[in-house]
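The instructor's notes for this session suggest beginning with a concrete chain rather than abstract definitions. Hand out the sequence below and ask the class to guess, before any prediction is shown, which regions might be ordered.
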Amino acid sequence: MSSNYSQTRAMFAITRASLRAIFRSPSAIIFSFAFPLIFILVFGFIGGGSRMSVRVAFDNKSDTTSDLYRAIAGMEGVKVVTGSEERLSSDLEKGRLHAIIGLRKNNVPDSFPKYSIVLTSSDAVNPQNIQVLRSMLRGMIDGMNERVFPHAPSYATVSNNVERVPGRVYRTIDFILPGQLGFSLLSAGVFGVAFIFFSLRQTLVLKRFFATPIARPYIVFGEAISRVIFQLTTAVVILLIGHYAFHFTLINGWVTFLELLVLSFIGLAVFMGFGFVVSGLAKNESSIPPFANLFTLPQFLLSGTFFPIDNFPAWLQPLCKVLPLTHLNDAMRNVAFEGAHLADCGPQLGVLGIWGLASYAIAIRVFKWE
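After discussion, reveal the predicted structure:
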């Protein structure tokens, strides 16, 4: 009789039962699906076509020794970005940079204007933002004229012609959706696993499983597979709604879509390890949320879920760059918008792998069956 017992069939029976329970759980639906979808809908309706923060750079021909350069760099509301010419051009084409500023010095002695400002932008940048930038530059020049050159012609001029390069629009939804999908996976992996295994242990369901011929690893696999199926279903719905309703960029079409699902699976597998850790450490059900929030809350705030981590103070950014959700979000954004493939996400996958190994190593030591 025992020789005919199928561990695989028993595992899938656990998977079906667990999946049915997940779909019947209001909290699982709300936190894994409804919560991130609401944020995506909000940002999709009010900011789907808006751009991110105002960012400019100077080209390599600009006179960086002038007072004008320092005045522009110190302007409130304008963030000056530095980097290689190739990187700045790439950011400009993708709308992550509003404009590249060229400061052209007038080499004729004692003549005005001393400088002319030339702007280069791209089709990915909202023209209204360029108008705002030009107004800010002109206002700054007017102030400089009044303070330093009150009796002379304008110290500098802003060219009316804006050079444009081809580009594609980087919408708010292209930043928000990967962050919300990543946080959905994080919440499901940590809270979902922690609560389900603690509940199975507390209600003696695991003890009843031990009276059957099913092996312990198959119990874990059965529950894990149900969680993976549910979350990948959630990921499919979120990605399709984002793409077809709000034009979320899938740069390589279905190839990008499938690669995002693979990244979702990898992220969920890593986060489930921390769920096993929490379920092993928790002494009672009320202690699960504090343990889980110690891991999830900092990532919700610091991993680039709602805005880029370079908006944080410099001293805080190294911590942001260590968190696993940061690397999952970066990998998803690189694949969706940059056109990268999984093979190009080696650094991000490496960090996720390290976190995964650490979490499961701890989980093996602290996990309790009874």
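Then share the key points. The longest strand covers residues 115-122. The chain has two domains: 2-47+171-366, 55-165.
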